Amino acid sequence: MANAPVLDTYAALVSTFGSFLTVAIHTILFERSIYPENTFLSARKYNFPVRQNRHPKVCAWINDAVAAVEAELLKGTVARVAVVIYSPSAKPLERFLFDVSGFPSVPPSESLTPLVEPSSGAGEDAVHGGPSVVTNAVDLEEQFRAVMSKLAYCGSTLGNLPDGCSFTVCIELKEKAEPPIGHPQAWIPSQPSLQIREETSGDRTGKDLGGVKTTPVRSVEAGVFVLELWIEEGKEKEKLKDSKQATA
Questions:
Q1: What pTM does this model have?
Q2: Exposed, middle or buried, 73 (CB in 10 Å: 0-12/13-18/19+)?
């Protein structure tokens, strides 16, 4: 019997996360009715039924966004990835958070070097140290399947969104990380209400960060792959609920 595939480099870990993020984004868009139901195809991933938007421009945008996330992850600058749902008036209603701060710290030049247990005095460097560390891809896919089962039913717990909502993908940088500046410009600064002020050592200062309600989704931990997921519902969503109740 063939050996189970393993993730033994940081580049392989990032690529695996990128594939998972792509499927998660399509699932979120379907469950939150960002696009009409008939624009999604039925598919399977991680031995679980999922939905994929079939519009070429939507797929291309998601693929480009995920590629940009992967590029920043390889630089070691990302603390969290967020899929943000906006109201028709561009107010953040929900944020689906993927906390990747638990990923190993690997210099960009060492992304293809086998991962190892950091030795004493090596700090958080995961390529210079003790014995090799591998992550079994089968174990990881089992946990991805559990995440998808949670996301696939998030619509029933989060309630309906107004028509005309939009979405984007954001990254929250690690403290003191250099912002992604270059040409072409893949990233733009998010609105002030979703910004973290660096000098407060990660304190959440944006009024729309944290939301008014947080729903844990699941943690994923297999070898060096450590990920936390949760959903934040923002103040603007509560205002929409209150206004509906007032007019009911």
A1: 0.85
A2: buried
